[in-house]
Amino acid sequence: MRLRLNKKQSVVFTVFYVFVTMVLRFLLEPYLAGYYLISIGIGLYFVLLYWVLLHKKILNFREEDGGSVKA
Questions:
Q1: Is 63 within 8 Å of 7 (Cβ atoms)?
Q2: Within 10 A of 59 (CB to CB), how many other CB atoms are there?
Q3: End-to-end alpha carbon distance in the chain
């Protein structure tokens, strides 16, 4: 079973992902007490995770057949 989102689901997931990651980073910033490299590392981790989702073709922004789950 392979999970694959269609274009609309990918856009909704991307908006939700960006919102959640920004909220988490803004909530964590006061506790980092000026350690900006940790903040940058957290941001790079979230970007890497998103890149993996794109690379594994879980997120799909093309106009193709719309099945969300394929066997």
A1: yes
A2: 21
A3: 4
